[in-house]
Design brief:
12 helices, 78% helix
């Protein structure tokens, strides 16, 4: 179940990325982070009122808030900085490659969670294939080499890894349900984003021309993208951490770059032979992770 939840997270992110593009430049990175967090928190709050979870320990609540502050608040901010500095292809390449590796190392060091050598092979195959697909699809425009941009990418990967390991440690113990964990992580993320917006004096409202047809579609596209890419994705991610090893989950989530190829194909875009081949190789890696995954409960 953890494996399929992780793949579901990747698919949600791939679809949401397309929808977020339709918002154009209406949202700045921080504004987007603020609104998608706020909308998702509101939705999950309603869910929790209906479900009424019980037995939430103070220990689990505090650690998940910290996980969200680091992984979502600081991590997403670093990733957005990397995007601005070195472009989307390089930022994704750095963050999505390093995050699973850092996660595996942190999981071994801090919670004693090891993956088998077969799973290491699967991780290597998936990450190498994802890297090759990203390089094949890299835009022709070149970006000036900016050391700070790559450091932000590494920072984003480190924050993702810390957030993943803390979430895995809490959820695998069965101390909290996935919906509550998702809610707390988002609240923790907002605890960083809101003060950061205030300190940087960033405009918190998007800039939209409501008189144009494209302007009228911005909020509907954004809300739908948030439902998929934030609300559903973080719930599935938390569910995945409850049933699968942290490094495996992070590796499978990195396949969102490959999932986007399928989304593009559905929308009528053609894929190159190279991307098809490397996507097939990645599926072999996923199959290895699934076949040699050991039960966690």
């Amino acid at each position: 179940m953890g494996v399929f939840a992780a793949l579901g997270t990747a698919l949600c992110w791939a679809i949401a990325a397309r929808l977020f593009r339709r918002t154009g430049n209406a949202f700045s990175p921080l504004t987007m982070n603020f609104w998608k967090g706020l909308i998702s928190i509101a939705i999950l709050a309603v869910v929790l009122v209906v479900v009424q979870p019980t037995g939430l320990s103070t220990h689990a609540v505090l650690w998940l808030l910290l996980s969200g502050l680091i992984g979502i608040g600081i991590g997403d901010t670093c990733f957005f900085k990397a995007l601005q500095s070195i472009g989307d292809s390089q930022a994704v390449l750095v963050a999505e490659t390093l995050a699973p590796l850092f996660t595996a190392l942190f999981a071994m060091a801090f919670i004693g969670e090891w993956i088998t050598w077969q799973q290491w092979v699967g991780v290597a195959v998936v990450l190498f294939s994802v890297d090759m697909v990203i390089k094949v699809r890299k835009r022709s425009t070149t970006h000036v080499f900016a050391t700070s941009g790559y450091l932000y990418g590494v920072g984003a990967a480190l924050c993702q890894a810390v957030g993943a390991v803390v979430s895995r440690d809490i959820l695998s113990a069965g101390e909290i349900d996935a919906a509550s964990a998702a809610f707390l992580r988002l609240v923790g993320g907002m605890a960083f984003v809101v003060p950061f917006i205030a300190l940087t004096k960033t405009r918190y409202m998007p800039v939209i021309n409501y008189e144009s047809d494209s302007g009228k579609r911005v909020w509907p596209a954004f809300v739908l993208a948030t439902l998929l890419g934030t609300t559903a994705a973080i719930y599935l991610q938390m569910f995945a951490f409850a049933y699968a090893k942290a490094a495996v989950v992070q590796t499978l989530i990195a396949t969102s770059a490959l999932m986007s190829l399928g989304v593009a194909w559905v929308l009528g875009e053609r894929a190159t032979k190279a991307t098809i081949v490397w996507s097939a190789v990645a599926l072999v890696g996923v199959a290895i992770l699934v076949s040699f995954g050991s039960p966690t409960h």
